[in-house]
Amino acid sequence: MIQVRIWDLPTRIFHWSLALLIIAMVVTGNVGGNAMVWHFRCGYAIASLLIFRVLWGFTGGHWSRWPQLRCTPSALLQYFSSKTKSPHFLGHNPVGSLSVLAMLGLLSLQVGTGLFSDDEISNAGPLVSLVSESYVNLATYWHKSFGKTIILILVVTHILAIAWYFFKKKENLTRAMLIGDKPSSDAAISSKDSPIDWLKAFVLLLVSAGLVYVLINLGSSTP
Questions:
Q1: Angle between the 36-59 and 195-216 helix axes, to the nearest 10 degrees?
Q2: CA 153/CA 6 separation, integer angstroms
Q3: Which run of H or of E encompasses 100?
Q4: Residue 62 gets which letter from DSSP?
């Protein structure tokens, strides 16, 4: 068995940062009060990470790029109908790829609706003034009910899937996302993961954070 670099450092930092921020969002959102200041800040940080991940999907390491997330209907059908008892994937399998895209999409929707939400007490998203009251009510309803619930279900499902892989298939996915490498019996493409790639990722993160900064100030700049 040889060790293949699957998850480059920027992807790993993105993954664990996103996990910590989701926990912080849930805690601060339920506590309310002054904690809502940090709820918004965590939301802006998640928005920056999501934009970064979109960009990194075009420029990052081989296994972090969008073409590696194969979850077309044909790929899913082949995966479920495979006669191989335990098909091995170095990157995400079709179901894992689908869950990644679902998580990123729903998090984007959750953060987006948060920008337009208003609890009619003391907290309002920075873009509330740009849309109608009916849209604000819809965004608030989704953000506080369905959106939050679906995200929590996906997170729990993700954790259960990791546990299942560890105990049933003897595959430590957590270790791979910590150190970046996975064992392979055959030669495979390794993701580029050099200081130059880290610098590129840092620049992309700065660009992403800048875009979020501009976005959240659109409401305050509107007459």
A1: 130
A2: 27
A3: helix 94-115
A4: G
The CATH fold assigned to 2-80+97-221 is Fumarate Reductase Cytochrome B subunit (1.20.950)
C-alpha 46, offset from chain centre? 8
Note the pLDDT tens digit of each residue in 123-182: 899 999 999 999 999 999 999 999 999 999 999 999 999 999 899 888 889 999 999 999
> Is the Cα torsion angle 37, 144, 215, 198 positive or negative in sign?
positive
**Signed CA dihedral, 159, 162, 168, 170: sign only:** negative
Q: What is the average per-residue pLDDT within 16-45? A: 93
List of residues 6+ apart from 44 with CB closer than 8 A: 212, 216
Radius of gyration of the chain (CA): 19
Classify 58 in phi/psi space as left (phi over 0), alpha (psi -120 to 50) or beta: alpha
Please write the tens of the pLDDT for every residue from 209-223: 999 999 999 876 655
pLDDT score, position 80 = 85
Rounded CA-CA distance 42/91 in Å is 28
Cα–Cα distance, 181 to 179 (Å, whole number): 6
DSSP 61: -
- How far apart, in whole angstroms, are the C-alpha atoms of residue 33 and residue 23? 17
Per the structure block, which two tokens stand in for 48? 């920056």
